[in-house]
Amino acid sequence: MSKIPSAPLSAIRDILVGTAVEGEGEPASAAIAYGLSLAKAAGAHLTVQSASWRLSGDDAWLGDFDAEGAAFIDRRLDALARSIANRSGGEAAQAGVVCTTETPGLPYPEIVSRLARQARLYDLTILDAGSRTYDLDRERIEKTLFVSGRPVIAVPPGADVFAARRIVLAWDGSAQAARAANAAMPFLRSTERVAIVCVAEPEDLYASVSGAEFAPHLVRHGVNVTVVDVPGTDGIAETLRNQGRMLRADMIVMGAYRHAPLREFFFGGVTRSLLRGSPAPLFLAH
C-alpha cells in the first residue's frame, strides 16, 4: 500500500482517471500524468480506465465501414488502450503508487455512461479537457458531474503535474460554489494561499453571500485566505481566466453548471467557456 501522508491530502483515498482512445496519433493524456502525480502526493489508490471506442455495431454513421473493416479498427484501438494502461501501470509502480487499470472496449455512449457510474465509487475523477476532441471531453466531464455526485478535476493540455500552492476559489455566493469549496477542502487546507475571487452577475447579487462573509468559514478550517472582488466587465469566465493567470493559480475551484444545461447551451456558460481554455486545472463540483 502507498504510505498515507499527513492531513489534509490524506482525505483523498482513491482517484479515478478516465480516458478514451478514439484514434491513432492522439496527444498523451494530461489527466493520466496529473492523476498519477496527485495520487503520489496524497498516498491514494489510482484507477486508470483506458477505454477504446468500439466501432462495431449498426451505427448508421459508420457509413462505408464493413464488418471486417470495423473489427480491424476495433482491434487497433483495443491495442492502443491496453498500451496506455500498461504504461500507466508501469509508471505508477515506479512512483510507488498502487494502481488498477481497466481497458473496456465499448460504443462511445456506453464508455461515457460506465465512467460516470464508476465515478461514484471514488473520491474524485480526473479527466482531460480542451483537447482536439473538445466536445467529447466535455460530454465526459458533464455526465460524470451530473451522474456521479462526485467532483471532477478537468485537466487542460500540458498541465501534467499536480500542484496546489496557489488556488483560486471562484465565488458567486451560490450553493454550487459552496459545495465546490467544501468538496475541495483537502486542497484548500494544503495550499499556501487561497484567493476567493468574487464575480457575480448583477441579477444574482441579491441572493448572494459575499466572499468576505464566506472567508471566516475557510479560516476556521485552517485555510490562508484573501478576498478579491473584481468587476465582471469582460464576462465572468474571462475575468476568472485573467485572475488565474495574474495570481499564477495551480488550480481553479468552482461550482459547475449553476444554470440548467439547456440555458448553458443557448446563452453560453462560465463552465463551458473555462473548459475551452483554462490557465489551470479546474476542480468542479455540481
UniProtKB/TrEMBL annotation:
Q: Please state every residue range assigned to the domain named UspA.
A: 165-284
* Protein name per UniProt: Nucleotide-binding universal stress UspA family protein
The record's PANTHER family line, in alphabetical order, gives: STRESS RESPONSE PROTEIN NHAX, UNIVERSAL STRESS PROTEIN HP_0031
> What Gene3D superfamilies does its record include?
3.40.50.12370
Q: Quote any Pfam family the record assigns.
A: Usp
Species name? Methylobacterium goesingense
Q: Entry's InterPro entries?
A: Universal_stress_UspA (IPR006015), UspA (IPR006016)
Question: Which ranges of the sequence are coiled-coil?
Answer: none
What is the similarity comment for this entry?
Belongs to the universal stress protein A family.
Which CDD domains does this entry report, sorted A to Z? USP-like
Instruction: Extract the signal peptide range.
Output: none
